[in-house]
Design goal:
The protein is α/β, with parallel strands linked by helices. The chain is built from twelve helices and 15 strands. The strands form two sheets. The protein has an eight-stranded parallel beta barrel with strand order 2-3-4-5-6-7-8-14, surrounded by eight helices. Helix 2 crosses helix 4. It is globular, with a radius of gyration of 20 Å. The protein starts with a strand and ends with a strand.
Length: 389
């Protein structure tokens, strides 16, 4: 979906296909047929943006076979879909029964991460619509914190510098400008937007910036305006933003609240949980640790890294951090000029929701994704952007 900003620029809205995990190119093509095109039709649009997730095997198949890439581009065009952004965070296995810490491997100290991201950039340059010259890729925020030391930090910086040089060369070759954004996430080396400033200013290249995920922003209790002002002041570009909402519990010490939270403690994904105390941010690596470990103070609100549907907050006594998303979006695109032109709804946890909230059929998932995009569209038009055909 495309929108005209009051300054005349085009803002793109997509939804991320990591909600339909597939490891192979055939699986990606099936996603387009079974999920993405039905969402477009449900919205009544001639064109729909999708943020592709290409796992390692799918990316390798495309980068080694130009005819396969042309076939994917033709499939996108035939189904009324377009791609200006990729989710390069998960490397493989995102559809596994247990993902947890595996999603942070390989990290930016491992040459495989640089190779994969370079491949994604080459592919995106070939997938961009004919009238679009800028693409974006979100990526791992360096590493999970426990796997990082001084040596690995230097390797990661060197890898990002090498990536920037490769992106420069790619634009010279193709005329397409691809940027990559580190996606701050609780528990990682770059946990907050503030954590991103030092490593990115050290690299000092406008092709490497930040992907602001509003669920992660909220989980870390960051104020959107303060965070985005700090990035702008430091000259760190916002490459893209993922529109998502975290799980919020206002009174976690109450038994009924803890019981409601327990329904979201599931075995597939990591749900980092945070609370803000007078001494600063405190947290656990997962929601069940917060509920059972007795280590997280419960005198203030808890927020958990669980991407809940944007249009359907959890039932009381829980809610979502949708207000944080709205505040962030106001700052991102509500001013005289957008801070980013690539927005991506990223609710990948539909099948990890408590059983009674999960879509039971493909059509229900289609309805849910369409409802999320409708909410995002309405927020954008309320900010003065005009939806384009």
């Amino acid at each position: 979906m495309r929108f005209r900003h009051p300054d005349g620029s085009t803002v793109h809205l997509a939804y991320c296909t990591n909600v339909h995990p597939a490891e192979t190119l055939d699986g990606v093509l099936a996603q387009l047929r079974d999920h993405c095109e039905p969402v477009r039709r449900r919205l009544g649009r001639d064109r729909l943006g999708i943020g592709l997730w290409l796992a390692r095997d799918a990316a390798r198949a495309l980068v080694t076979d130009p005819s396969a890439l042309r076939g994917l581009r033709c499939a996108l065009d035939r189904r009324g879909l377009e791609v200006v952004t990729l989710n390069g965070f998960p490397y493989e296995g995102f559809g596994a029964e247990e993902v947890k810490y595996r999603v942070y491997q390989p990290d930016w100290a491992d040459p495989a991460r640089l190779d994969h991201t370079t491949a994604l950039a080459r592919l995106l340059a070939g997938l961009l619509p004919d009238d679009v010259t800028e693409g974006s890729i979100s990526t791992l925020p360096l590493a999970w914190r426990t796997a990082h030391d001084g040596t690995r930090a230097e390797r990661a910086r060197d890898a990002l510098r090498a990536l920037a040089e490769r992106l420069d060369a790619l634009e010279e070759l193709t005329g397409r400008s691809i940027r990559v954004g580190l996606e701050p996430e609780p528990g990682c080396v770059v946990e907050t937007t503030r954590d991103a400033i030092a490593p990115l200013t050290a690299i000092a290249h406008d092709r490497i910036g930040v992907c602001v995920d509003t669920c992660h922003l909220a989980t870390s209790f960051e104020d959107p305006h303060t965070a985005l002002d700090a990035l702008t002041g430091a000259g760190v570009p916002v490459v893209k933003s993922q529109l998502s909402a975290a799980l919020h519990a206002e009174h976690p010490r109450l038994p009924e609240v803890r019981e409601a939270l327990a329904a979201f403690a599931e075995p597939r994904f990591l749900h980092q949980t945070r609370t803000l105390t007078p001494a600063g941010l405190r947290g656990t690596d997962d929601l069940d640790e917060a509920l059972n470990g007795g280590t997280l103070p419960d005198t203030g609100p808890w927020r958990a890294h669980f991407h809940v549907p944007l249009h359907a907050a959890p039932a009381a006594p829980l809610t979502s951090t949708l207000p944080v998303l709205k505040a962030a979006l106001t700052r991102l695109v509500g001013g005289p000029h957008p801070l980013t032109r690539h927005l991506e709804v990223e609710t990948y946890t539909w099948q990890a929701l408590p059983p009674e909230l999960r879509p039971r059929a493909r059509a229900q998932l289609t309805d849910g994704i369409a409802a999320e995009l409708t909410l995002a569209r309405d927020l954008l038009t309320d900010l003065g952007l005009k939806e384009l055909p």
